[in-house]
C-alpha cells in the first residue's frame, strides 16, 4: 500500500537515550507533520535505524535539510518506493 | 595517566587555548571549580547565569572563536537558557558546561535537578549528556568542532557531578579537530552564477552575518567594486561594508534605509549572501524582491529556499564561493543602474541628527560617541529604540565591532556582552548603548564590571519608557499606552555609583557633550545616564506585516 501524498525517510542514527527527542522535537517545533515512526537498534546497538512516514508537501525538502543537520543523523535516505502499509498494521506484526 | 572528569574538562579547555571562562559555581559543578582553582584559566564570576552566557557571547562574537561558560544544575541552567537560545539564532559559538545531579539521581526529581538535555535540544546546535569521564575525551573536541564549524552555534555539555569526580585511565590526550567547512564547491556552479550576475542589469547584493562569520568582507567589496553592484546589509551584517563606500546602501528592512528598501524592489537580481531572509529584513514576504531573480549562497543548506525559493543557489562557505567566482565576474560600469541608485539615494535621504536643538537627541549622541572613540571600538547594544538608532547611525567600519541581539532580540544582552568583549580584547575600547528598560534586565552584572574593571563605557538612553513598545502603541494600537511607561524611575547614575562605578548624569551637567567626550576617554568602567525625549520615535520604519516599500516617517 502506498499513499501518494506520503513518503518514507530512512535514518541511521547514533543510538543513545536522547536521539528520539532530537528527531521528534525537530518535527514538533518546526510544525512538520510526522505520520508514523518505526525504530530499532542495528547490529551491536551503537546505531539505530528509524523509518519516518511524512507528508509530501511544500515542507518536505526543508524537513530533509533540517534532519541532515542533526549531529546524530549519520545517514538519510529518501525511500519514495517503500510500501507504507507496515505503519498501519503494526498490531498484526506483533501477533504470534 | 589517570584523571578525573573535572580534570579532563579543565585540561582540555587549557589545550584548546581557552583563557577566560564566565560562570557561577553551585553544588553540581563544584568539582569542576576545584580543578579550575589550580588552572591558569581566568574565571569571571557573573552575578546571574544569563550574565555568564552573554559574557561568553561577547567574547565569541568579538573574536569569532568559541567561548566557554559554566553553570550549575537546575536554576543555573534555566537562567542560562536565554543566552543559549540567543546564541543559536545568531549563530554564535558558545560551549556551555553545566553541572548535573549525580547519574544515579537523574530522573528522581533531586534537589536542583532539571532536564538540561531536554531543555536545550531546541536551542543548541547540538548537546551532550556525559555519562562517563571517558566519554568527555570524545565529547569535548567534538563540541568545539560543532560550535565553530560550518554555521557556528552553541553546544551544551551536561556533566553529572559523579562524572566530574570519576577517575579515568588513558594513554593520550585527544587532539582538537580542525575547524571543518564544507568541501570545495561544485565546479560548474560558480560559472552559471557568474553568467547570471554578468548578464543582470540591475543587481543588488544583500548580505547578512555569514559574511562576517566567513571573514569575507574584503572579497565582498571586491565583488561589488568589480561589477559595480550596490550592496545592502542586514542587522547582523553591519561592519562588513564601509558606510562611506559609494556602493553601500546601508541596512534593509524594518528600520533600514528607504533607498535600500526601494532599490531592492527595482533590482532584477538579488544576490543573497549569508542572509537568512529574516522577517525583520524582508518585510511582507510576498512583496520582497518580487521582480528579481534570486541567487542565494549560504553555508547552511537548510537556509536555501527555507523562506523564499532561490532561482540559483549554492551551499558554500562564502569565502570559498567569493574567491572562486571573482575571476569569472566581468568588469562592468553599470552606468544606468548606478545613476538610478544615486538618484534614489538623493530622493530619499537618510536620517540625520538635528544640527541645532536637542543636545540629547539619540542620533546626535551616537555621532558624538563615534567622533570620540577609536575606529576599532567594539559597540554592544541592548534591544529597543536605542539599538535601532545605533544600527542606523553608528559608522561601523570593521567586522565584529557591533554586538547586538539580532534574532532573539534579548533585552539585557548589552551589558554582559560588553563585559565579555572587553575581557577578550584588552586594549580596545568597548561602548555599550543601553536603554532604561533593557538595562534593568541584567543590571546585576554591574558588580562584575566593578570587579573586573574593563575599559567599558555604558551609555544609558533613558526615556522612562519601554520606548519601542510605546512607539508601536502610538502608531498601531490607537495610542492606548499601557505597561510601557515606568512611573518609578531609578536614579541610575547613583545606582552605578552604588556598584562602585564612576558615573555621570548628563541631565545635571552644564556642558553634557564635553562630559560625554571626556568620560569616553577614561580607560576604566564608566556609566553615563542620558535623558532622552520620550516621544522620539525610530524612523523610518516599515509597519509590522507591511511591505518594505511602505516605509513611514
Task: Give structural attributes.
heterodimer; A: 96 residues; alpha+beta; four-stranded antiparallel beta sheet; globular; B: 553 residues; alpha/beta; Rossmann fold; six-stranded parallel beta sheet; 22 helices
Question: What's the structural blueprint in terms of helices and strands?
Answer:
The complex is a heterodimer of chains A (96) and B (553).
Chain A: E1 6-14, H1 19-29, E2 36-42, E3 47-55, H2 60-69, E4 73-79, H3 90-94
Antiparallel strand pairs in A: 1-3, 1-4, 2-3
Chain B: E1 2-4, H1 5-16, E2 20-23, H2 30-37, E3 42-45, H3 49-63, E4 67-71, H4 75-89, E5 94-100, H5 116-120, E6 126-129, H6 133-148, E7 155-160, H7 161-165, E8 167-169, H8 188-199, E9 203-207, H9 209-213, H10 217-227, E10 231-233, E11 248-251, H11 258-266, E12 269-273, H12 279-282, E13 293-298, E14 312-315, H13 318-325, H14 335-347, H15 362-372, E15 378-381, H16 385-393, E16 402-403, H17 414-424, E17 430-435, H18 436-439, H19 445-452, E18 456-462, H20 467-476, H21 492-498, E19 502-505, H22 512-521, E20 526-531
Helix pairs in contact in B: 1-2, 1-6, 3-4, 3-17, 11-14, 15-16, 15-22, 17-19
Approximately how much helix is present in the residues of chain B? 25-40%
Number of domains of chain B: 3
The overall pLDDT average of chain B reads 96
Secondary structural class of chain A: alpha+beta
Amino acid at each position: 500500500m502506498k499513499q501518494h501524498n506520503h513518503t518514507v525517510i530512512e535514518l541511521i542514527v547514533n543510538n543513545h537515550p536522547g536521539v528520539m527527542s532530537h528527531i521528534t522535537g525537530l518535527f514538533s517545533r518546526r510544525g512538520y507533520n510526522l505520520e508514523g515512526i518505526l525504530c530499532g537498534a542495528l547490529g551491536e546497538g551503537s546505531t539505530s535505524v528509524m523509518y519516518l512516514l511524512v507528508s509530501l508537501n511544500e515542507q518536505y525538502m526543508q524537513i530533509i535539510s533540517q534532519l541532515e543537520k542533526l549531529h546524530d543523523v549519520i545517514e538519510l535516505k529518501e525511500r519514495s518506493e517503500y510500501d507504507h502499509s507496515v505503519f498501519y498494521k503494526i498490531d498484526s506484526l506483533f501477533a504470534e | 595517566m589517570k584523571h578525573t572528569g573535572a580534570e579532563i574538562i579543565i585540561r582540555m579547555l587549557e589545550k584548546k587555548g581557552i583563557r577566560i571562562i564566565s560562570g557561577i559555581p553551585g553544588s553540581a559543578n563544584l568539582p569542576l571549580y576545584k580543578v579550575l582553582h589550580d588552572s591558569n584559566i581566568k574565571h569571571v564570576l557573573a552575578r546571574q547565569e544569563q550574565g555568564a552566557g552573554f559574557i561568553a557571547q561577547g567574547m565569541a562574537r568579538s573574536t569569532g572563536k568559541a567561548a566557554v561558560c559554566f553553570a550549575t544544575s537546575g536554576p543555573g541552567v534555566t537562567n542560562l537558557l536565554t543566552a543559549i537560545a540567543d546564541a543559536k539564532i545568531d549563530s554564535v559559538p558558545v560551549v556551555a558546561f553545566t553541572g548535573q545531579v549525580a547519574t544515579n539521581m537523574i530522573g528522581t526529581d533531586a534537589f536542583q535537578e532539571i532536564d538540561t538535555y531536554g531543555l536545550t535540544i531546541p536551542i543548541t546546535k547540538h548537546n551532550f549528556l556525559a555519562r562517563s569521564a571517558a566519554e568527555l575525551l570524545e565529547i569535548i573536541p567534538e563540541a568545539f568542532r560543532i560550535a565553530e564549524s560550518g554555521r557556528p552555534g552553541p553546544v551544551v555539555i551536561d556533566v553529572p557531578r559523579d562524572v566530574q569526580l570519576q577517575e579515568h585511565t588513558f594513554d593520550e590526550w585527544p587532539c582538537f579537530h580542525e575547524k571543518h567547512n564544507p568541501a570545495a564547491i561544485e565546479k560548474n556552479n560558480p560559472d552559471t552564477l557568474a553568467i547570471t550576475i554578468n548578464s543582470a542589469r540591475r543587481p543588488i547584493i544583500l548580505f547578512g552575518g555569514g559574511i562576517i562569520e566567513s571573514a569575507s568582507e574584503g572579497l565582498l567589496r571586491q565583488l561589488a567594486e568589480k561589477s559595480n553592484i550596490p550592496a545592502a546589509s542586514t542587522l547582523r551584517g553591519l561592519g562588513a561594508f564601509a558606510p562611506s563606500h559609494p556602493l553601500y546602501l546601508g541596512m534593509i528592512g524594518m528600520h533600514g534605509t528607504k533607498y535600500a528598501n526601494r532599490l531592492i524592489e527595482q533590482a532584477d537580481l538579488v544576490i543573497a549572501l549569508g542572509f537568512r531572509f529574516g522577517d525583520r529584513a524582508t518585510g511582507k514576504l510576498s512583496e520582497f524582491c518580487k521582480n528579481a531573480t534570486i541567487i542565494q549562497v549560504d553555508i547552511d543548506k537548510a537556509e536555501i529556499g527555507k523562506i523564499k525559493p532561490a532561482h540559483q543557489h549554492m551551499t558554500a562557505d562564502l569565502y570559498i564561493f567569493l574567491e572562486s567566482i571573482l575571476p569569472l565576474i566581468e568588469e562592468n560600469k553599470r552606468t544606468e543602474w548606478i545613476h538610478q541608485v544615486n538618484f534614489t539615494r538623493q530622493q530619499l535621504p537618510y536620517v540625520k541628527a538635528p544640527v541645532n536643538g536637542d543636545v540629547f537627541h539619540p542620533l546626535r549622541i551616537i555621532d558624538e560617541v563615534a567622533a570620540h572613540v577609536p575606529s576599532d571600538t567594539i559597540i554592544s547594544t541592548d534591544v529597543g529604540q536605542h539599538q535601532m538608532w545605533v544600527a542606523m547611525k553608528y559608522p561601523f567600519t570593521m567586522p565584529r565591532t557591533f554586538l547586538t541581539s539580532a534574532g532573539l532580540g534579548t533585552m539585557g544582552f548589552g551589558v554582559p556582552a560588553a563585559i565579555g568583549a572587553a575581557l577578550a580584547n584588552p586594549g580596545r575600547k568597548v561602548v555599550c548603548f543601553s536603554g532604561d528598560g533593557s538595562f534593568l534586565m541584567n543590571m546585576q552584572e554591574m558588580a562584575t564590571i566593578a570587579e573586573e574593571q574593563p575599559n567599558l563605557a555604558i551609555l544609558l538612553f533613558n526615556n522612562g519608557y519601554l520606548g519601542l513598545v510605546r512607539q508601536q502603541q502610538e502608531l498601531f494600537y490607537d495610542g492606548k499606552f499601557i505597561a510601557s511607561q515606568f512611573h518609578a524611575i531609578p536614579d541610575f547614575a547613583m545606582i552605578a555609583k552604588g556598584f562602585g562605578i564612576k558615573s555621570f548624569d548628563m541631565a545635571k551637567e552644564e556642558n553634557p557633550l564635553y562630559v560625554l567626550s571626556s568620560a569616553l576617554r577614561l580607560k576604566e568602567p564608566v556609566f553615563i545616564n542620558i535623558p532622552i525625549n520620550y516621544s522620539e520615535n525610530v524612523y523610518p520604519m516599515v509597519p509590522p506585516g507591511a511591505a518594505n516599500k511602505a516605509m513611514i516617517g
